[in-house]
Amino acid sequence: MHFDLEDSRSAMEIAQRLKALPTQSAPPMNWREFRRRQLLRRSRARSEQRRQFALVAAVALVMVGTFSLWRYLLPIADPLAGGAPAAAAPVMLRSVPIAWDDAAMRSVAAERWLAAQPAEPVIVRVGTRAAVTNLEDRIAWADDTLSSMRAEGGEAERARALQYERDRLVSSLAQVRYAETLAADLP
To answer: Residue ranges of the domains in the chain?
Structure first.
């Protein structure tokens, strides 16, 4: 829809409409109201952000608590069980007894402490690392030999002596790893 501006009647009509408009219209809100609304909007956004941060912190705290409970409050694993099926346990107990005394209890405690340590220390010194590797290899050999003796029904005295040797090796490994941890903290 077009109209001709050259037509005097339409130009006069437009001029009259423009003259009929108010000279100044009131703004929808003054500066103070605008500023108040802006500050209110910002405070709501900040409180929402704080709520989100609090939620993230709470979730992180629950995760850390769950992990620490899972990691440190597990019951001490019974070395008699050894991960073997329940049906095979009575046969193993009858064939080769396991030395279960103070040394074995210290060995279990040392194993728990070693399990809580990182696999590789941050600072590795060749001498102590070689000692740790040697001790770990000897413990693995003792575990393999004890497992095969239990499976085959070997000599009870030899198994008891090997169990004592394994407990001594685990204790030595814990001492070396503890010394490694202390040395890593030194400047």
So the answer is: 8-72, 89-185
